[in-house]
Amino acid sequence: MTITLYDFELSGNCYKLRLLMSILGVPYDIVPVDFFPGREHKSDAFLRLNPFGQLPVLRDDDLTLSDSGAILAYLARKYDASGRWFPEAPDILAQVLRWHAVADDITSTASAARLALSFDYPFDVAACQKGAHRIFRLIDEHLWFGEKAGRDWLCAPDHPTTADIACFPYIMLSEEGGISRQDYPALRRWTDRVRRIPGFVVMSGIFPAGPAKQD
Amino acid sequence: MPLSLSDPTWYPIASSEDLPFRHVYQGQLLGRELAVWRADDGTLNVWENRCLHRGVRLSIGINEGQELKCQYHGWRYANGSAGCTYIPAHPADAPARRIENRKYPVREAFGLVWSAANDDQPFKPFPDAEAKAWFPLRPLPVNASPDDVVAGLARLAPDDQPADMLPGMAVRLETAIYFVQPVDSGRSVIRGLLAEKPANEIAALRHYNEMLTKLRDRLEKAAARKPAPEPLQPSFEKVSVDLATMPDIAIPRGTTFPVLVKRKWQSADGVIGFELADRDGKHLPTFQPGAHIDVHLPNGLVRQYSITNGPGELMSYVIGVKQESASKGGSKALVETVREGDVLAISEPRNNFPLRRDATRTVLIAGGIGITPLLSMARFLDKSSLPYELHYFVRSGETAAFRSELEVLHGEVRTHMGIGRKAIRKEVEAILGLHEFANHVYICGPGPMLEMVQDAAAALGWPDEAIHFEYFRNDKTIDASSSFEIELARSAMTLHVPAGKTVLETMREAGLTVPSSCEQGACGTCLTGVIEGEVDHQDVYLNKSEKASNSCMMTCVSRARSHRLVLDI
């Protein structure tokens, strides 16, 4: 197998795939795409790979895939022997897909605010920030009651899934879009847990957490 | 009522469960951002949310258990004192002791963490606080002014049973109390406590969360119709220039403070442990691994003892004192006359033996009582999960001190018992091996052993800057027979130093205030820059290359080979 990731270093959506492949120990090559300022993702060559003109794109031998959430599911099903990252059980699978959708909402709010402030995109910053806070409040509530019920992760009680990977990057990068996480303590604790998953890697703007307490 | 930055009221700023180990909580009170963290020993820290170096938020830093590490340039701050303990850009130096972050008072009670803008008021529990087993609700941040939130909570009361308004922005409604944390002029957090644990906890938490969420929606809608209040403008104290620069090693002596002898015990044959604590139960000043304190003894002598503590352990200092038969009266006075409950004067910690945290291999070699500073170093390295080896040489017939403290370390700790003089060198050579990049050795023990290890290391290719040592005292016979002139460049003074008198004494007689401590060339306090002339080094503080550089000297014992020395003083 030869995996190639069409990647932009500062993209949270590309980072989702780098993160999961690092955790699963899957080797891959990178083809850098000049998303900003070159807008190479709208070039003819790139549109032939993904007509939607969006990063990331992943090629696994002859197969070409796009959409970060779909690729997370593909990588987990194909390369995760434990079967935990994208579980078969219908109840958990439904929740994982539900949170993949939340991840897309985070992209259209928190990530959009970041694109507006850092990459000159003509978005309504205030509206994006307000939308992100609305979602972060719901996630914080979900995680707070999750902790009370002994569930440390978004879906499955005792292990992370692709849902956690999908939601993590643009939550962690929210400050770059002027969105503070001060009001979301349970969400901040969850980001510590994600950053302690064995195989975790960082990207620009995302810092590591120290090791957990050893007894 | 407008909020005041100097409001001394205690407010809840977090729930206890918001502060698991190894997490940094981001909080805010009266406009001031806070970094709040729980150390591994349970201590809670409420600090201004910025690193003194470049102002980066400490809430994105790393809680290492007993120290908080800034994410930006890795400055470490100690649990309890918020004093800086390590600066990676200056790995071989000890940070200035004055680098200390701003702290706020903290108390953990009734499932909540409380703080205040200043220390003007003691913590006072709310009415009835002690009588109930309080059960904390999910805190709810609200984008509305604290006064409006208090009023909104009061309106939840039924008409025939008006809400009970408590001091400090709190409202009692039936069996629940709601505290309003004034985050800023337009932002609040509702922190509720139920008077007892409900039968179905999750259902109760859901119920109150839903009720408060509805209240929040109403309050935020109303707040959106009003002009947003001006946020509070807390001032940030400027970091002084001397904090931002590296310290002089020489720190004037004389600032002592009293400590209580909390515990005195026999740690091993001939080694007595002393635990020294603040008399009012406050934390002691920040120290770094390798640091020592001056202990002022009842008989008037001043002696230096290394602190054995690990990172962030500031509630007391533990020192080890050797009962020496040939003691000059220092250790003897401590061991024989000082008892538990006595008060001693000590100096703030000084560090002439700083530990680097950027080595790929750290070898700690202790001889006898020399274990004390190395125990502290091992504890720091242990907590940061850095690799190290600790070799503890003990004479036959002696027992190892601080055994239980050594047993809990995770690194490679070996005790070498009763090895003969010649065999020791072989053993040390085998331990050290040839020098490799980023290897460092730290040695503390009796004079002859220090010289032997330095010698052995040098022969194996270890450069001077990789060999770190600390003498307890200078065993050399000082030759004070020379006489010479000293020119004090900055004081515009020329003095004659006669035979039998030290440079330090001569300067003091001429009216200069010069810091010193051990006055036997071991502690480094009187280090002085040399501009011209050849120094007759007689100290044990400087290493070979420092001595050869002829650029500094210890004025308490060293003299001149040339007839004149020009000093930077």
TrEMBL record, chain A:
GST N-terminal domain sequence ranges: 1-83
Recorded superkingdom: Bacteria
Segments forming domain GST C-terminal: 89-212
A Pfam family annotated for this UniProt entry: GST_N
PANTHER family: GLUTATHIONE S-TRANSFERASE-RELATED (PTHR44051), HYPOTHETICAL GLUTATHIONE S-TRANSFERASE LIKE PROTEIN (PTHR44051:SF2)
Protein name: Glutathione S-transferase family protein
Organism: Devosia oryzisoli
TrEMBL record, chain B:
CDD domains noted in UniProt: fer2, PDR_like, Rieske_RO_Alpha_N
Domain Rieske: 10-115
UniProt keyword annotations, A-Z: 2Fe-2S, Iron, Iron-sulfur, Metal-binding
Recorded superkingdom: Bacteria
Every FAD-binding FR-type domain range: 252-356
Positions of the 2Fe-2S ferredoxin-type domain: 484-569
A GO MF term: oxidoreductase activity
UniProt KW Hydrolase keyword: no
Name recorded for this polypeptide: Rieske 2Fe-2S domain-containing protein
Originating species: Devosia oryzisoli
